[in-house]
Amino acid sequence: MRGTLIFAGSSCPDITDKICQNLGMARADAELTQFSNGETSVRILTSVREKDVFVVQSGSPKINDTIMELLIMISACKGGSANKITAVLPYFPYSRQSKKKSHRGAITARMLANLLGVAGVKHVVTVDLHASQMQGFFKCPVDNLHAEPLIARWIRRNVARWQEAVVVSKNAGGTKRVTSLADALKLNFGMVTTDKKRGPSMSASMIAYPLDGIERQPVLDPISNQVRNNSSEPENGYPATDSGRSQDSRTAADAQGSPRMRANGTHSRNSANHKSPPKRSQTTLSQSSVIDELDEEEADALEYNDQRAHEVTHGRLVQGHIVPDDFPSPATSVADTSVPDDDLMTMSHASSFFAPQPHALGGSGDVGASSDEEDDILKDPKVEHTITLVGDVKGRSVFIVDDMIDKPGSWIAAAETVVKRGRASKVYCIATHGVFGGDCLEQMQACDCIDTIVVTNSYPIPEHKSRNASKLVVLDLSFLLAEAIRRNHYGESMSPLFQHLMD
Fold first, then answer.
1. Is the C-alpha dihedral spanning 111, 406, 462, 156 positive or negative?
2. What's the predicted TM-score (pTM) here?
3. Where is this region: Disordered (predicted)?
4. Among the listed residues 145, 65, 60, the one whose alpha carbon sits nearest the alpha carbon of residue 459
5. Which of 87, 171, 246, 287 is the most buried if burial means most Cβ atoms within 10 Å?
6. Greater confidence, 38 or 224?
7. Strand, helix or coil at 59?
């Protein structure tokens, strides 16, 4: 392409050469060195005046050196009077730090976007950002390409009976990505979630029985044609005594958190002669008026139906692995967490035992939580987790999908769940970015429940790791990036790059 130069950073010379080969041009020359104290030095060896410059740089184990090298290359091209500078980042560094995880945390991805703008970038091309809203961090246009069409084509060509497979998300945060691939392939999808197991000795009164004096609204059951008033208040306006309440039933939570009913014995908080001031009268709902408003179709829809109950499977997870039901529980899950029923202070704060764990600022679960945090939680030897598989995978191939593979814990846990609990036939772990921190690739290679690991070459994988990984399949992104560069240079639409092409 006339008037175009493509420079390669030190992290990804191989993919840059493939991009240039697809475009029928040679890589531009630049000298990248480091001083003895670790400072990065860049010297551009060709004229960039009034040229359209593309700098290709990805992540690497030395991520901070890689970022500084990219910024210095961009600044050098800007100082050389380049017409337009585009940063091509197959893997965007610090993408997992796209939101605050504490009140004094930093949004590092936004800071990096600002640094690129200050250095002189006028356009950014990347692949599968960890959070798509990160595009708003930039003051220049961003093309967030997707590897999904490439992955879908590989599945259609290489997986036997892929039409019967199920796409599974290994956590709640990845469901949007999973449903997108499932829709493209017209497949069913499922989800795996993990929760910390509660102690089996938790007092039922802490869970289901509120303090005296708290009104509870009546509950209408249109199916059984009964109106159940949860309040224990009799018609005379006074609260019931312990003797009158001894035959009531309570809803308690067992060790797995499922509701069960148990008979309530004599309660020790109130004496038999104790009376409280009269409460305000409650307006009860008219059973007949509500039932009349329900037509036959609505009544049928409200009937109890357990047709899909078999698609929900539970398992026990200890130190990141599925264990049998008779496996001894760790200390945390079997600890005696019950409290005396007469402890009013604890009773009044019972809900705090079931409050959700703190998340990133924003009020919901942190979709961008790092796999390091997820792995540390799963590997805690003192905590047992309950893992739940939603979806029918029996006898089918399963595609566990996420945007990156960094730590192995959640991948192995999800794979063991769909195989040992869901009876899946094969498991494919699929991601765009194969970061493979530490011994991640070795652990996934050794896992008997994982058959194939599919990633792209957006992140450089060391040769000594890939050489011994027989399950690893690396897809080439060079054509996608080359076409994005060509369309960017000529001002053509990027929309065709997001379309799925049928074989």
1. negative
2. 0.73
3. 224-289
4. 60
5. 87
6. 38
7. coil
